[in-house]
Amino acid sequence: MRKADRDLLQQRYRAERGKPQPSAEALNNLWNEWKNPASAVRQLDLARLPADALAFYRPFHFSPHEEWGIYILVEPLLHHCALLYDSFGGKLAAFNLETLMGCVLFEVFHHEFFHHLTECAATSIEIASAGFGKAKPIFIDYWDCRFKERGLGPHPDHPLEEALANAYSYNSFSFLSRMEIGFKLIWVKVYQKILEKCWDKEPAGYRSAGKYINAEYVSGAAQLLAMLLSSPDPDPASLMLLAKTVMPSGNSAFLQKPDIPTYLVGDSRALARFGELVPAPNETYTSLFWLGDTSTVDEYLKDRKKREALAKRNPA
């Protein structure tokens, strides 16, 4: 990060620390959302777009090869985030527009990153096949038929790759939830419930993500590997082993997430507005970074959790 960018972030951070702290009512609402995120979003009429309407992945298999990477469409992203925020109707304490944009950006990036994982997995098979003197264009064959039924035959969640991309994005939020209780954990839990509520409104494939979240992801990844191989008689145990050790954790990626070429596409006005909401994009879409000072909320939640645990141990 350039020095000028670091200086700007420091200025923004100092400004955030000077803002008023949450009220007692807001803190109580945050606690309730952490305790029951499903209840917090149940009555909301949410409006959202599929991740691929907001960004796309350009494979490195295609020329010009130097233009491969993730492309984030800033104007649709801003519009989508504003629609989603408006649909909250002020009923979610966990989010302001900045924190919501961070979650949306994190979601969209990880959806597209899964497409990179898929290409890298196919490329690894291509390299292995070339090593045995039988080079096969695994990815190109798959790409040409990715929206057709192949490999395993008709699939109920076709196109499966989109279901898995949504599930991978969801699971990436789960990875962040391993942290101690705090403000960011509320974003994660509530936003995941938003995703679950919205999947039914998405196109075929995308809407099936719920079948592949958490531990079920491995089974879906194994099925996708069978499609990459276009094998009429795959060995299930071998596919499950490969899926479990390679695709779920992102080990098939040739680059780490912060190093994937990622482009923000939009006019100067949209980019300026995006910069106001997300001053550190790379850190935000890879780790859900936020400039705001969450210490007051974090301490409140930890103390509230301790008090409730103590009350359970020593009922009146």
How would you describe this structure in keywords?
316 residues; mainly alpha; 3-stranded mixed beta sheet; 3 strands
Please characterize this protein's 3D structure.
The chain is mainly alpha-helical and 316 residues long. It has one domain. It has 13 helices and three strands. The chain has helices spanning 3-17, 24-35, 37-42, 74-88, 97-131, 138-145, 160-176, 183-198, 217-229, 236-245, 268-277, 281-287, 295-313; strands spanning 55-58, 69-73, 262-265. It has a three-stranded mixed beta sheet with strand order 1-2-3. Helix 5 (97-131) packs across helix 7 and helix 9 (217-229) packs across helix 10. The chain is globular. The protein starts with a helix and ends with a helix. The mean pLDDT is 86.
